[in-house]
Amino acid sequence: MPLVNIIGVRIEINGPVSRTQFNNPLFTELPAGTYTYTIAYGDDTTPACIKTGTFDILPSGIPDPVNFVVATTAYVCPEEDGSISLTGITGSADTDFTFEVYQDGDVIQTGTITADQAASGLFVISGLPLGTYQVQIAQNQTAVNTCVGLIASPFVEAIIVEPAGGCGLFVPNIFTPNGDNSNDTFFIRNLPANSKLVITNRWGKQVFSSNNYQNNWTGDDVTDGVYYYQLVVEGERYTGWVEVMRGN
Predict the structure, then answer these.
(1) Comparing C-alpha atoms, which of 169, 223, 227, 224 is closest to residue 195?
(2) Strand 156-161 with 74-75, pairing
(3) pLDDT-based confidence at residue 77 (cuts at 50, 70, 90)
(4) In angstroms, what is the C-alpha Rg of the chain?
C-alpha cells in the first residue's frame, strides 16, 4: 500500500482485520487477504485530503499444523456402542476437517469435523465397540493458503475397554451412609430399570421396598447392622445380605 509520512494523517484499513493508525503507515501481523485503505489528512471532521484504494497480502505458503488429543480412555460394556472424544483440535481457522478411524490397518469410520465443532473444544466419534483404534484428522488448507494442500495430523491411539468393575450386576454387601458423599446409598451396579427390591431386618420385618429401585436407599430409617435383600431383575430373583455401617 502507499506509504505516507505526513503529520496529521489517519490511515484506516479494512479486510480480514480492521485497524486505524495515526501518523504511522506501517501495519504489521496482517493475515492474508484483500484490504481497502483510506488515507485522510487533516482533522477528523474536515479532512483536507482523502485517498482510497485496495491492496492484497498473499499467503505465506507455511501450513498450519493439524493436531488433536484423545481426551481419555473410554469405557463401555460389550453389548453397547462406545465413543472416542477428541479435544484440542488445531489447524487453519474457519476450515473443516476430516477424520478417519483405523482398526488393524483398515479404515472403519470416516467423517467431517466442522470448523465450529473443532472450535467448540470437543468432538465425539461414536458407534465404536470395544477395541484399540488409530485416529487421524486432516484439513485441506488450499482455501486459506494457495501454496498448501492437505495437511494431516499424526495418528493417535484410542482405546475402548470394559469398566474396571465389569459390566454385570453387582450387589454390594456394605454401604456407609455417613454423609461424606461416598458410598452413601445401597448402590447396585448395572441395575436394569424396573428392578424390584425389598429390604428386611433379621426378624423379617420389611424396612424398605421399591418396584423400580433407583439406587436411592440411604438406610436413614434403620440403625447400623445387617439387613437382607430380595432383588428381582428381569424375572430373576437374587437374595443376600447388606450391612449398614455409618461408623459413628
Answers:
(1) 169
(2) parallel
(3) confident
(4) 32
Asked if residues 95 and 112 have their Cβ atoms less than 8 Å apart, the reply is: no
pLDDT of residue 248: 61
- ∠ CA 72-75-77, nearest 5°, is 165
What domains, with CATH codes, occur in the chain? 8-57 (no CATH), 67-160 (2.60.40.10), 174-244 (2.60.40)
**For cell 445401597, what's the residue?**
186
Between strands 33-42 and 18-22, the pairing is unpaired
- How many angstroms separate the CA atoms of 70 and 101, rounded? 12
Q: How far apart are alpha carbons 67 and 89 in whole angstroms?
A: 6
Give 108-128 pLDDT, tens digit per residue.
999 999 999 999 888 999 999
What are the DSSP calls for 64-83, one per residue?
PP-EEEE-S-EE--TTS-EE
Report pTM.
Answer: 0.51
pLDDT of 64 above 90: no
| Residue 212 CA, distance from chain mean position | 33
